[in-house]
Structures are given as structure tokens and as C-alpha cells.
Amino acid sequence: MAVERSFVMVKPDGVQRGLVGEVIRRLERRGLKLVAAKFMRVPRELAEKHYEALKDKPFFPGLIDFITSGPVLAMVWEGPGAISVIRNTMGATDPAKASPGTIRADFALDVSRNVVHGSDSPETAEREIALWFRPEELVSYDRSVDGWIAEEK
Ligand code: IDP
Ligand code: MG
Known about the structure:
With 153 residues, the chain is α+β, with helices and mostly antiparallel strands. The protein has helices at 12-16, 20-30, 44-50, 60-67, 82-90, 103-107, 122-132, 146-149; strands spanning 3-10, 33-40, 72-80, 116-118. The protein has one domain: Nucleoside diphosphate kinase-like domain (Alpha-Beta Plaits). The chain has eight helices and four strands; from the N terminus they run E-H-H-E-H-H-E-H-H-E-H-H. The termini are close together.
């Protein structure tokens, strides 16, 4: 599996409900590596750019109001196949349809309050990481445990 980077966000509901640590814990113990993190209130313009692909959906105004309603934890996580691994760890968009054991199934009920965001493809990941972080905010480093998590190539 190629090493990938994914943009991950604990949304305002996750922050308010005290789930920041829970989300980080699940990604960390999986073996994924944190390469950037920023706790912030999301400017409206950034929220609209982030969800640009959904701008014609009926729920778009409500989604933008929600994402800008309180602070979020924006992060970049790295690892082999990180993009799909994180999507699978999060579960389906609608928590009611998410598999048991996923973040959304374990901590959410409604599609409009689903706790986390994760990039859905390599192209989206690249776009979202560039939108939320400056290049110098991404921290590259080795961990002594890396060889115990994936075979080094
Ligand atoms: P994703 O977050 O699993 O990638 P997307 O289809 O990209 O799902 O939608 C982005 C976000 O928009 C969802 O996570 C959710 O917060 C919100 N959303 C999606 N569909 C609905 C809906 O039908 N009603 C309200 N909010 C929605
Ligand atoms: Mg999406």
C-alpha cells in the first residue's frame, strides 16, 4: 500500500461532545501518523470552499452554518492506504447506515451531525490539505515504531 496523507477534521459536534481525544486515539492506535493539527474556528469562506462540490445540495446552507458554528480540529494523518483506511474507520456518511465499531456508528445518529470528516480520494486529499494547511505546517518525521506498523520498502 502506498503511503498517503488524508485531511481529517473533528467537526463542531465532535468538539462540543468531547470526542476530540476519542477520534485521535482511534487513528493513533491504528498506526497512522499525525503530521499536522490546527484547532480553529472555520471562516465561512473556507467552509464554502471545502464543501464546494456540495453547493447545489439542499442541505448546503445548513452544512455551512454547522461547520462554522464552533471550533474544529483540522488534521493531516499519514500512513499506508491512509485515505480509505480512515474512511473505513469513520464509517458511512449517514451514521444510521455506518457499520458498528466505526466512529460514526459508535458516536452519532444523524447525517447532519456525524462528528468527523475524512478525504474521500487522493485528489480530494491533496486539494483539502492545501486548502487547510500551508506546506510548512506539515511535519515530516520518523517514528522508531514505523517498522513494526508497516514493512519498510
Ligand atoms: P462524507 O463526509 O462522508 O464525505 P459527503 O457526501 O461528502 O459525505 O457530505 C459531506 C457532509 O455533508 C457530510 O459529512 C454531512 O455532514 C453533510 N451531509 C451529507 N448529506 C447530508 C444530508 O442529507 N443532510 C444533511 N447533511 C448532509
Ligand atoms: Mg465527502
